[in-house]
């Protein structure tokens, strides 16, 4: 029973969380002493030696005695009051490595346990977000598929369910999460339907279907939509409606992102009507046309569009005529005018564009292409990997609202909390793969695309103030990184910040660098940060953001560094006594978009995005100051003691970073930053 408790989803999640952060070899064994996970530098050799040692072991007790005699640290790992596995590591540093692994295993076992509705909802949300965004099924998606018991290779189609208010805007205020739970309990979802809450007012169902022909499952989806619509109407007292958009069926989970793209296209074209249930199969021409290169679409429709732009009345009639299947009677009804008026306008359309959509199929297709291009809405997906209440999530939400407002509803940005792991490399991987159009994440993840220049931004005490940092970034950093990011297919619109990252500690405060000696501190995945703390005699450990609390609770680490808001939201304060205010690192998060997505926008929407991004950046800078100030006050109320180093102590801190600056390999880039700092200082005199 215990061996099965340590299932593949737990194993893969622990492996993913450890990554390359463990420099000590270690093995995780199940209750039958079978090796389930080999980790750390030299892990394979250690595992082979351990396997030979334990060949004759009749059980865990004997294995423990053999390991002890061979200078191998051996310990059981318990979860929910029972032993689920054993951990082995070299005796010299094995205790710390094993304690670190215990935290991860216990956390994953806890999340994997049955009965956690909130945790299951989180897994479902993460799974549908990943399946919708990319065909790459990584270990995290595999673990969710396994934990939730889904078959991988059956036919499914994406069904996008969007709750919209009377204003036509998707609204997170409606009781939408309860729709997910209600649908699961109402018998309208099958065992193989993969479903989850995706964004404010949106739920995705990858529905298992009997065949590829959509007529074989359209009736079932319409019935599901009707039941959901009735539920939403009752819960919102008629103030909200549910619209449903279905893609075509695909075999296997790795192809479901294609079905979701089709459903999302329907929403982008026809969202806001309320109460609809649409299928991509009824809009094949529009879908295929939308997949043409953006420039090609505009070129095809340019002459017709220019001619129609000369008269607003004629333009509106042309659009409505195309949407009415070129029926003058339907067009007249939609416009509220007489049929003869429509016929007169059609003659003017022919005069201006040389199109005769009533009698020529080719001209009808050309007019439809023009109308699609003119009325096309933009729907993008944005992602973060921190808690929803963070200033980064709030900043993306603010950007979304600005785009929606500036475009009159024509530009919609859906926000996804991809995870709370802090895995910025994964986040930017989703941007590069096309799974996301916009991301906000640590500049550390830009290192592979900038010849590691982004690492220079993580040198300790690089900036003296937020204003100085903003000036240097705008005048020097972004221009320096722009070309290399452009080559990689990334456009960086600006750098946001969560604020100054403060050191926290347990037991005794950190006033000077020597106070860190021997302390185990959680760090970001940055070589500059690792080298700095290691040089001070600390033990730096890379731990996923969502595992910090457990690592603090079990004393795997006794220090960490984060802005005040994160310390409060993630409850790190429960295991830390002191917070030291140091201008050591000004958090740097990059707002980036996919170059491919950017080129799909016309010039007007590109300018609209630039303006919205600039306004949102200013909003984030103000908001992080406010939220960190409020969080600091709350942390003090909760009992944390704030340490502000004296001028003499600060001088010691600044001297401690000299070796790191002298050894900086990106010397030319650092020199440019220092010159920009001097220009800023001169401008302030």
Describe the structure.
By secondary structure, this protein is an alpha/beta fold. It contains 27 helices and 20 strands. A 6-stranded mixed beta sheet has the order 16-15-17-14-18-20. Mean pLDDT is 85; it is low at 167-177.
Topology of helices and strands:
Elements: H1 2-5, H2 8-18, E1 26-29, E2 35-39, H3 43-53, H4 60-69, E3 72-79, E4 82-90, H5 91-112, H6 117-133, H7 139-148, E5 155-165, H8 177-185, E6 194-199, E7 202-208, H9 218-235, E8 240-251, H10 256-270, E9 277-279, H11 284-290, H12 294-308, H13 312-323, H14 328-335, H15 339-353, H16 361-375, E10 378-384, H17 391-406, E11 411-417, H18 424-433, E12 438-442, H19 466-488, E13 490-496, E14 502-505, E15 520-523, H20 527-535, E16 539-542, H21 548-553, E17 559-562, H22 564-569, E18 578-580, E19 589-594, H23 595-600, H24 603-637, E20 641-643, H25 647-656, H26 658-662, H27 667-683
Parallel strand pairs: 8-9, 10-11, 10-12, 15-16, 15-17, 18-20
Antiparallel strand pairs: 1-2, 1-4, 3-4, 5-7, 5-8, 6-7, 12-19, 13-19, 14-17, 14-18
Helix pairs in contact: 2-5, 2-7, 6-7, 6-10, 12-16, 13-14, 13-15, 13-16, 14-15, 17-24, 19-27
User: Could you give the order of strands across the largest sheet?
Assistant: 16-15-17-14-18-20
Q: In angstroms, what is the radius of gyration?
A: 29 Å
Largest sheet report: 6 strands, mixed
Care to count the β-strands? 20
Fraction of residues in helix? 40-55%
Counting helices, strands and paired strands, the structural category is alpha/beta
Number of helices: 27
Instruction: State which percent range the strand residues make up.
Output: 15-25%
Q: pLDDT under 50 segments (min length 5)?
A: 167-177
